[in-house]
Write a structure and sequence with these properties.
By secondary structure, the chain is α+β, with helices and mostly antiparallel strands. 41% of the residues lie in helices and 19% in strands. The strands form two sheets. Strands 1, 2, 3, 4, 5, 6, 7, 8, 9, 10, 11, 13 and 14 form a 13-stranded mixed sheet that branches. Strands 12, 15, 16, 17, 18, 19 and 20 form a seven-stranded mixed sheet that branches.
Length: 604
């Protein structure tokens, strides 16, 4: 029986070649879009889902509640992990991650005594427990690799880059002209779907290398704290214990600041979809975006199915006599339904096969937009295969059920006598409704596309408040005053170089520094959180930042004055920003006077 169904189906498709080609093409486009969107959404939701006990791993994040809207930061400070270890028995592991490195230079001494130097990215300092908290595939060494100071774990690609085919274990190299480190482990390269894309993992900084991040008041977005709860502790129970726990550590000048900080736990699975916080992968995709994308994929597939139904309206008319003859010869209602559903299933399978190749080509061309490379054939695991099996069944049910039912319900005598005219008018209202719904979806997607395009154009056209034309930014391997001064002097005399400026981060860097400041205005003591940028006297001119009032920074070996923006002046309570000049500000125990007001500009 099945063989006869398939044989009849192929004969029908061969007889109506043009109709079959149009149906296959329409379904293939809809299925291709749905497959590509499915793979993208699935990838975005798969970040760090391969870690054992991932549901017990969390990132400590901070909410600033002094003013609304509340501020949020993933940045932490060095005192937090040891304090957590000391005060709570609920934690299996605690680790700080410090990626505040600015592309360090690695020196590899070769056998002939010469030194090869490499500038690296994706480098991090961690506590030893980090390697036990997260899953790594070990090629050399084990999760105890960072128990000693000045040790390092490399990824396989980096180990091969430095030492070729030799074993990297126990090899020594220089880190950033600061100290030598010993390789104690080699791991497989991290996958794309991780927030921890580190290629070089070093044992935590020594005390003298923490560069002032050992206080509770200051934070850096490049320093995170990860914890793993034990099996008997829930997220809510531990967050309840965290409430007000930190206040005993915020003493002296930081006491007021502690009252407006609230520590909470961010699940590992939500780091990629929580837009309030940054991460080391530098990519955050909101759940709303993924939901919207999924809805678009569903609508495109539904549109393709409606298009299939509308196209098969002609087929219903053309094959009405065939249905009548088959019923006259003894075919039952169910047999006709299965026959016509089978034809739709065959078309769906053909369309799915074509869609597989189209999806791969589309993903290749989308990689510059997505910023990562996905492959349809590389993601053919159990979940994807299940989706591909369900897809033609779903398409057959959506697109083939109505035409099959309509054909199987024709009355033999009436159909053979009246022919096409009898069949044409049946179901006309439904077909018209489907056409209207299809046009509604198409117009809706067009309108959404126009709105998104206009929003992007608006965003791209907004002034940053800085001049980025013909400005080149690059990182320095060392942060030594004498090197910085010499480099600036030499750059300044190069023909074509108009201005030179130095700062701790780029003009619009994702790495932001921040902390709490104090200032007394009249009888009122003001304590607020602010972002900070260290810059020299040439910064404003180089980036074309407008100095509204007062004086610029001056050449100095220490921070003896502050230049603030209009928003900072308003935070002090001045509607007229110029009146903020002369106010003394204490930032990280460094007291200086505001000497200049600049126009607001986008720094992150």
């Amino acid at each position: 029986m099945l063989r006869n169904y398939l044989l009849i189906a192929f004969r029908s498709l061969r007889k109506n070649k043009g109709h079959a080609v149009v149906n296959v093409a329409g379904l293939a486009l809809g299925i291709t879009c749905s497959i590509v969107i499915f793979l993208i959404v699935r990838f975005e939701l798969s970040y760090d889902n391969y870690h054992a006990d991932g549901e017990r791993i969390f990132r400590i994040v901070t909410e600033y509640t002094k003013s609304e809207p509340y501020g949020h930061s993933s940045g932490m400070t060095y005192p937090l992990p040891p304090a957590l270890r000391q005060d709570f028995a609920d934690l299996e592991y605690v680790a700080i991650l410090d990626a505040n490195l600015y592309d360090p230079v690695i020196g590899i001494t070769k056998k002939d005594g010469t030194v090869d130097r490499y500038k690296e990215t994706k480098v991090v300092f961690v506590d030893p427990e980090y390697l036990k908290m997260f899953h790594y595939s070990w090629i050399e060494g084990n999760s105890d690799a960072l128990q000693k100071e000045k040790t390092v774990v490399l990824t396989a690609s980096l180990a091969k880059k430095y030492f070729g085919d030799e074993s990297a274990l126990n090899k020594v190299f220089n880190f950033n002209n600061q100290f030598d480190v010993t390789v104690t482990g080699v791991v497989a390269d991290p996958p794309l779907n991780t927030h921890f894309p580190f290629r070089m993992i070093l044992s935590a900084r020594l005390g003298k290398d923490k560069r002032g991040w050992d206080g509770w008041g200051a934070t850096s977005s490049s320093i995170n704290c990860m914890i793993k709860l034990n099996e008997t502790t829930s997220k809510d129970a531990f967050e309840a214990k965290l409430k007000d726990w930190h206040l005993k550590y915020f003493t002296g000048n930081n006491e007021e600041d502690g009252k407006y900080r609230r520590y909470s736990l961010q699940p590992l699975s939500e780091i990629h979809t929580d837009t309030r916080y940054q991460n080391f992968g530098s990519r955050v995709v909101s759940k709303v975006t993924l939901l919207s994308l999924s809805l678009i994929g569903l609508l495109l597939l539904l549109t393709a199915c409606i298009n299939f139904i509308n196209l098969n309206t002609v087929l219903i008319v053309k094959r009405s006599k065939e249905a009548g003859v088959r019923k006259t010869l003894g075919s039952s209602h169910s047999q006709l339904v299965w026959q016509f559903m089978g034809e739709t299933f065959i078309i769906s399978i053909i369309a799915l096969t074509i869609s597989a190749g189209l999806a791969e080509l589309l993903l290749i061309n989308l990689s510059p937009i997505l910023t990562y490379r996905l492959s349809f054939f590389a993601m053919l695991d159990g979940v994807t295969m299940g989706y591909l099996i369900i897809l033609p069944i779903l398409v057959t049910a959506l697109a083939g059920f109505y035409p099959a039912i309509r054909l199987s319900k024709f009355q033999p005598a009436r159909t053979l006598k009246s022919g096409m005219s009898s069949a044409y008018g049946e179901g006309l209202t439904l077909r018209r409704g489907l056409i209207v719904f299809q046009l509604f979806i198409a117009q809706g997607l067009v309108i959404i596309t126009i709105i998104i395009t206009q929003q992007i154009n608006h965003f791209m056209a907004q002034p940053l408040g800085i001049n980025s034309e013909a400005v080149v930014e690059f990182l320095l391997p060392e942060n030594k005053p004498e090197i910085i001064r010499t480099l600036k002097e030499r750059l300044s005399v190069i023909s074509g170089v108009e201005d030179v400026a130095m700062s701790n981060t780029g003009s619009t860097s994702e790495n932001s520094w921040g902390g709490d400041f104090e200032a007394t205005v009249g009888d009122k003591l003001i304590k607020e959180y602010t972002k900070v940028k260290f810059a020299d006297e040439g910064y404003l001119e180089t980036y074309g930042i407008t100095l509204l009032h007062g004086e610029n920074l001056v050449k100095s070996d220490s921070a003896n004055r502050f230049v603030v923006n209009e928003k900072f002046a308003r935070a002090l309570g001045f509607q007229d920003p110029e009146k903020a000049i002369g106010v003394a500000v204490n930032m990280w125990d460094n007291k200086a006077v505001i000497t200049g007001i600049i126009k607001d500009f986008n720094a992150t």
